[in-house]
Amino acid sequence: MNYIPSKREPYNGSGSYKKVQGGCAKGKVKELKSGKVIVGANSFNKSKIPSRFDFLTLSLSVTLPHMTTATKLLAWYRRFGRDLAWRKTRDPYHVLVSEIMLQQTQVDRVKGFYTAWLKQFPNWKSLAKATNEEVIRAWAGLGYNRRALMLRDAARSVVKHELPTTVETWLQIKGIGPYTAAAISAFAQKKRVMPIDTNIRRVLGRLLLGNTFPQPSDDERIQKIVNDFLPRRGNYYDVPQAIFDLATDICQKSPKCATCPLRRDCPVSKKFLSGKVVIPKQMVKKAIESRHLEKPYPDRIYRGRILKAVRESTQGINPQMLGNAIDKTFDPIVDTEWIEAMLSRLTKDQLIEKRGSKLFLKR
Ligand code: SF4
């Protein structure tokens, strides 16, 4: 939990700096080993300049006026940010792999897959050469398999053309949307841009718009003012990562404002702390997924099961065998059309193919 990309001003997590020790430079703030901070002599009226002894015993709380909300956030992040492998690299390929894996998959699950993927496909070139079958096998267990093919196709595009260097040029790669384009630009290329996903929308919508439960329709307003929020120098590119962690640990759907390092700057903290805010059951309308009315899960789950059955059958699998393999309640009379529709979708997505009478992973 202690990722420290660079040492800057220490922060005690309470919105203010505290404290006391002798020997600090004039007008400077000095960090104690304990993480506490002292303020130098010219911060005081000369007639009241404390002695060295005073420095050792006096305890005071000083809020540094230059600390913007983003600076406080970064200070908190340096102390409490998650230690994640993809945060230790500026390699655009590694960052893209992590971003695509993190779409729809939890951080803890992605960790192992990220390392294994980079071992098998260490760079753009090695991935560009991979077949559909190879990437589908390497992606096994992550779900939403089309992401694997999209990643491979992005690698082919980079190898064939050149590495994009702006949000606009990343957007020209098929499958890369505004969020991912901004994320790679910030994390790999240190651009001063803000990717907006659900987590970032929730935190920035609250902080910058004073909206307790921001919606996707607020993104445009957030983008318009986020430029003033981001620091102009230093690790401004870490701000989105810091927001992810704040959103995960503190500024959740039901936020823990009492422990938030930004509570003094946040226009909705008092509202939440009053306990009078009603937490909606659903923040954002869920995308409508196709599903069989008689089955407990959306079709996406069954498509995943079909792909798994095909992947694990070294000699290919007969389509008639799939029904019972993916669904215990499968009824060939009423469910055959349903299976065929899913097979057709998997074929269209280039994940499987029919050779003879059997199904295989797409070569
Ligand atoms: S004070 Fe509360 S609402 Fe505001 S950013 Fe912090 S956790 Fe979120």
Concise overview:
The chain is mainly α.
**Proportion in β-strands:** under 5%
How many β strands by DSSP? 6
**Rounded Rg:** 26 Å
Report the bound ligands by name, code or SMILES: iron/sulfur cluster
The CATH homologous superfamily of the domain at 91-187 corresponds to Hypothetical protein, domain 2
> How confident overall, as mean pLDDT?
83
Give the biggest beta sheet: 2 strands, antiparallel
Q: What is the CATH topology assignment of the domain at 91-187?
A: Endonuclease III, domain 1
What is the N-to-C order of secondary-structure elements (H for helix, E for strand)? EEEHEHHHHHHHHHHHHHHHEE
Residue runs with pLDDT of under 50 for 5 or more positions? 1-63
> Rough shape?
globular
Measured as a percent range, the helix fraction is 40-55%
Distance between the termini: 42 Å
Question: Mind telling me which CATH architecture of the domain at 91-187 this is?
Answer: Orthogonal Bundle
- Please state the structural category: mainly alpha
- Write down the CATH class of the domain at 91-187: Mainly Alpha
Continuous helix count: 16
Instruction: Report strand order across the widest sheet.
Output: 1-4
Describe this protein with a few key phrases.
two-stranded antiparallel ribbon; Arc Repressor Mutant, subunit A; 363 residues; mainly alpha; disordered N terminus; 16 helices; single chain; binds iron/sulfur cluster; Endonuclease III, domain 1
List the SSEs and their pairings.
Layout: E1 17-18, E2 29-31, E3 37-39, H1 52-57, E4 61-62, H2 69-80, H3 92-102, H4 107-120, H5 124-128, H6 132-139, H7 146-160, H8 167-171, H9 178-187, H10 198-209, H11 219-229, H12 239-249, H13 269-273, H14 299-312, H15 322-326, H16 332-348, E5 352-355, E6 358-361
Antiparallel strand pairs: 1-4, 2-3, 5-6
Helix pairs in contact: 2-12, 3-4, 3-7, 3-9, 10-11, 10-12
